[in-house]
Sequence to fold (155 residues):
Amino acid sequence: MDNRLIWKPNVVVAALVEEGGRYLFVEEETAEGLRLNQPAGHLEEGETLMDAVRREVLEETAHHFEPEALLGVYRWRHPSKDRTYLRFAFIGKATGHDPERKLDAGILRALWLTPEEIAARRDRLRSPLVMRCLEDYRAGRRYPLDLITELVEAA
Fold:
């Protein structure tokens, strides 16, 4: 069988949340050690992309999130793993916080960082997608959410 026929990228969502010049990040445990990332995670079966990003932000930061725009779609192949990621990055607002909520396993904490603090920790970023999304956001990249069409069949 031709392996190209069964290859599938890992579909992930990520959120860019800015408040007062600071960006919402998570510090997480990974196989490569402690890393910084935007709130992000995998799309689950039956979930829309926007529902997935709302869920991931809540699970990883205890902040409720409402998407307002699509920042972009990014493809990245991890250099030391046989994995390709297809990241849908959303821009939006934190609409509430539940400080008593337990964060996902592996997430040490949510934190708000300035662009300078992020750049100073560049070597700790989870992937090159993190900085690229931040750069695109700061450059004003925005796409309407209706760019995404999700056809859902009735049960």
The two ends are 33 Å apart (CA to CA). Helices lie at 49-61, 115-120, 128-138. The first helix runs from residue 49 to 61. The chain has a mean pLDDT of 94.
